[in-house]
């Protein structure tokens, strides 16, 4: 065989796994169908969305809170073209960094669509139509996901768009209708609401980010409402139509009435689907499940033992850091190590402002599992640091086992929650009790004190500053 490992796909799962394979002495090739490495996350996902979230938040603060800080601005304007250009520069610099890492680790980078010829052979069809065939002892499927859409809401990429187009609009929508108030809806809806668009969320479930702890959805709704957004919860979209200059969205209300919403753009953010198009999995005999996900066992092996899969194309959360863990896991498994991933402790973050972050069981899950539990929560408005920076929205909620005090879940919405959740992950990885966290010194004044205070609240209601 020419290669010990062939990685198909260069997203965070693919490139991280390829690097770990190379570090472990495996001769590795990585195949990517697009000219740029980095997959969804670096090109049209995590990185560009965070660049626009940061830029739009700067604008929003300049327009709405600088005056209170004692900073006067005149003639403030949004330069959307520059905002999108900067976003692209961040993306380009980041993806070039991956090219550098491939070279540094002596990983062969091949661009083109990879497809199975047989269980050990991959054909790569390049942009110019030429073909190359390579053989590998082990093959890793890391082909990620694509936006989901339904026949009732056909994506035309002009007015009815996915996150990919929403990251490169040439004008600020007047009225953006967002179908699905999940993670993408919340993040990209916030971007355009901050820049002045009217944003309406139409959501099947009864809250924003409905899969997270219910408290977070309620709190997030309050802050997004301040941006002027409207919410249509428990509403069902029946039709989306681009009429030229407008998009008309037909919706069934919970009472069974029919209403229409008219906007200039409609963002369809109803989830993502695993992507295996063109892989020719049949030639290798690799099975997919009834949702199109490549089936894997606990070692991330498919039904063909030397073929593995990871990230968005398999079961579990569609998150970059989950895919990265799995890339490392497979590399270490191939060389005979015994790696471990604690799936319950993979944090989830929504990069609105304030940020939303969560790890472990939600209160709804704790109840479902019938665990005896107690809750401690602490509001950001009681924190000195939050008052100093004017970031008083949000709270930290800690769920701990009623008898053992072990932390079962931590759910936060507040300034820098995305970074703060790492402390909760560490604590839970070491099976800390809420009491353990209260015994650790937290620098003052910091946002992290909210976590300590919530842990104090969870242990005999001992929060100090509330
Ligand atoms: P991907 O990143 O999807 O990469 C798969 C790669 O495989 C692609 O480059 C694709 O071109 C390539 N490929 C597919 N088929 C073939 C083939 N046959 N031959 C060759 N190459 C092929 N997650 C977070 O954790 N944090 C965030 O902040 C975050 N923000 C996001 C924002 C948006 C707008 C979106 C859409 C997603 C976001 N995500 C975020 C999710 C994150 O992007 C994904 O979970 C992550 O990219 C999955 O990584 P992956 O390696 O499984 O696949
Ligand atoms: P999502 O699963 O987060 O949200 C989709 C929402 O659409 C859900 O609330 C669902 O109830 C709703 N929905 C589904 N069908 C609907 C319909 N017909 N009408 C109205 N509402 C409907 O999916 P989203 O936001 O598209 O994101 C896809 C994936 O990308 C997520 O799994 C997420 O993990 C990942 N992602 C992660 C980010 C992060 O980590 N910060 C940022 C963006 C995306």
Automatic annotation (TrEMBL):
Its cofactor is FAD. FAD binds at residues 50, 114, 143-145, 312, 318-321. The active site is at 444 (proton acceptor). Its EC number is 1.8.1.4. One of its GO terms (biological process) is 2-oxoglutarate metabolic process. GO terms for cellular component: cytoplasm. Residues 346-454 form the Pyridine nucleotide-disulphide oxidoreductase dimerisation domain. NCBIfam families: lipoamide_DH. The active site is a redox-active disulfide bond. Belongs to the class-I pyridine nucleotide-disulfide oxidoreductase family. This is Dihydrolipoyl dehydrogenase. It comes from Spirosoma terrae.
